[in-house]
């Protein structure tokens, strides 16, 4: 999940992005706040979340540094700031490209799917940005609606602020109504006139900014209102500027499920009948601005038939030759029989470690000072219980969950105890017999880790991204 921050003259917009804009928050812009003062407003909404990265667009230089420092000090993330040197994919054909605000650039990036687009941003200022074939051809800037109201109220003795709303008539019969017509209706007519002068019939017109819905009500032609246009542009800019390991497509093909990680983790059924077309339908083509985002593909697989399909998908759809995890790609020396999933998780750790994988099978492998020592393989929690039910006449299917106590008082509780407590005891017994030193890291992963590991007697960390971390290390080792 990414964090998008748009620092405007009136408000700072903060949004989370996880395949699309999720939560959007607004706080007032204050030029005098420090990062610690901003933390009072930002920590309650951000401190409990984890982000892979942050990108900032700012048109208020005095606020850029405090927000940057907040991200570094409180989120432990160094933000990408839209500006010179940051790739956007947009050409700027103006007298002085450095004058073009980062908000205008971000919105232009978001509109790049259209050959010709006019972006009308109705905020503190109202701007008209014309983009043609990923090139900003020019911009018009005028006073925004609320700014206009503040200006006339400030410079006249008898006029007061009003609620900005449309009026059906074009002649007011009282002061409030007259102001609304002049401000709101007049602004809309101005917007319409600029659209008619700039855009032809083939130009896509997008309205964005806080007053876009209000103005769109009055226009003769209704246009598309895109409230998150700038935020989507920031996300695209972030994607174009990622580090090399953010451009990896990581694939973990297991016996039951396949996990694919790029921006987010997509879980697919490990169906041996899948074709490349099925993968395109479920995963897409990972393209942005018509260009494949993926620079490399790393595959860990324990299902050979599916390996062939994913390799074909990588080559034919993504245009990338995948790296397959094997003993040859490992940083540690392992035998030919060791599975790709075990190799990947082993490569994720440094130093002396025990790794517990709780999947279709329960696998415990041990790495000591850079040497792969060996593996223990047992039936997984679900696999073992399914086999017991299928081979016992009086037992029925049940939900595998932690029972109230070790000793069950009914059949389901007895089975749950055997599955959960029994598995925890098995893990304890195996680790006791490996007899690792006090400095050995023990890490668990897999669907049942959250239920079983807290019942083990040793301190065991849970890291369900461990295999993906191993794939990154294997790719790095291959360079």
Summarize the entry for a quick read.
By secondary structure, the chain is of the alpha/beta class. It has helices spanning about 35-45, 60-75, 100-110, 145-155, 175-200, 210-220, 230-240, 275-285, 305-320, 340-345, 380-390, 410-435, 450, 465-479, and strands at about 1-5, 10-15, 20-30, 55-60, 80, 90, 115-120, 125-130, 135-145, 205-210, 225, 250-255, 255-260, 265-270, 285-290, 290, 295-300, 325, 355-360, 360-370, 370-380, 440-445, 460.
Question: Secondary-structure blueprint of this entry?
Answer:
Layout: E1 2-7, E2 11-17, E3 21-28, H1 35-46, E4 53-58, H2 61-74, E5 80-81, E6 91-92, H3 102-110, E7 116-122, E8 125-132, E9 135-143, H4 145-154, H5 175-198, E10 204-208, H6 212-218, E11 224-225, H7 229-240, E12 248-253, E13 257-261, E14 265-269, H8 276-283, E15 287-288, E16 291-292, E17 296-301, H9 304-318, E18 323-324, H10 340-347, E19 353-358, E20 361-368, E21 371-379, H11 381-390, H12 411-434, E22 441-446, H13 449-452, E23 461-462, H14 466-478
Parallel strand pairs: 1-4, 4-5, 6-9, 7-10, 10-11, 12-17, 17-18, 19-22, 22-23
Antiparallel strand pairs: 1-2, 2-3, 7-8, 8-9, 12-13, 13-14, 15-16, 19-20, 20-21
Helix pairs in contact: 1-2, 3-7, 5-6, 8-9, 10-14, 11-12
């Amino acid at each position: 999940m990414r964090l998008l921050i748009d620092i405007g003259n009136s408000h700072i917009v903060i949004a989370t992005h996880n395949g699309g804009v999720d939560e959007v928050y607004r706080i007032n812009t204050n030029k005098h706040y420090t990062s610690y003062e901003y933390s009072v407003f930002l920590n309650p909404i951000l401190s409990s979340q984890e982000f892979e990265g942050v990108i900032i667009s700012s048109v208020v230089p005095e606020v850029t540094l405090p927000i940057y420092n907040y991200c570094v000090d409180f989120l432990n993330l160094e933000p990408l700031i839209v500006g010179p040197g940051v790739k956007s994919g947009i050409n700027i054909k103006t007298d002085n490209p450095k004058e073009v605000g980062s908000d205008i650039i971000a919105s232009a990036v978001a509109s790049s799917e259209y050959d010709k687009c006019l972006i009308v941003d109705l905020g503190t200022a109202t701007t008209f940005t014309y983009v043609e074939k990923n090139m900003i051809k020019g911009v018009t800037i005028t006073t925004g609606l609320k700014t206009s109201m503040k200006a006339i109220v400030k410079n006249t003795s008898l006029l007061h602020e009003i609620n900005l709303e449309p009026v059906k008539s074009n002649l007011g019969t009282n002061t409030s109504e007259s102001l609304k017509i002049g401000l709101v209706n007049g602004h809309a007519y101005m917007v319409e006139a600029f659209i008619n002068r700039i855009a032809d019939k083939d130009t896509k017109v997008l309205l964005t900014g806080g007053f876009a819905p209000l103005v769109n009500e009055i226009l003769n032609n209704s246009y598309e209102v895109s409230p998150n246009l700038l935020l989507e542009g920031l996300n695209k800019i972030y994607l174009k500027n990622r580090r090399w390991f953010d451009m990896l497509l990581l694939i973990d093909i297991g016996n039951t499920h396949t996990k694919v990680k790029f921006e987010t983790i997509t879980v697919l059924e490990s169906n041996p009948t899948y074709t490349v077309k099925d993968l395109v339908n479920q995963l897409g083509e990972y393209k942005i601005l018509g260009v494949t985002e993926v620079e490399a593909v790393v595959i860990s697989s324990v299902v050979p038939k599916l390996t062939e399909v994913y390799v074909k998908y990588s080559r034919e759809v993504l245009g990338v030759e995948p790296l397959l995890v094997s003993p040859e790609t490992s940083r540690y020396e392992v035998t030919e029989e060791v599975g790709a999933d075990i190799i990947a998780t082993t490569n994720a750790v440094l130093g002396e470690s025990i790794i517990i994988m709780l999947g279709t099978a329960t696998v415990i492998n041990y790495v000591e000072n850079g040497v792969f020592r060996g593996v223990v393989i047992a039936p997984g929690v679900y696999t073992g219980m399914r086999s017991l039910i299928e081979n016992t006449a009086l037992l029925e299917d049940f939900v595998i969950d932690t029972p109230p106590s070790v000793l069950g008082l009914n059949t389901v509780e007895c089975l749950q105890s055997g599955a959960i407590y029994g598995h925890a005891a098995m893990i304890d017994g195996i680790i006791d017999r490996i007899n690792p030193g006090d400095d050995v890291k023990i890490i668990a992963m897999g669907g049942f880790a959250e239920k079983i590991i807290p019942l083990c007697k040793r301190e065991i960390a849970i890291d369900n991204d461990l295999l993906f971390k191993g794939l990154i290390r294997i790719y790095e080792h291959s360079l």
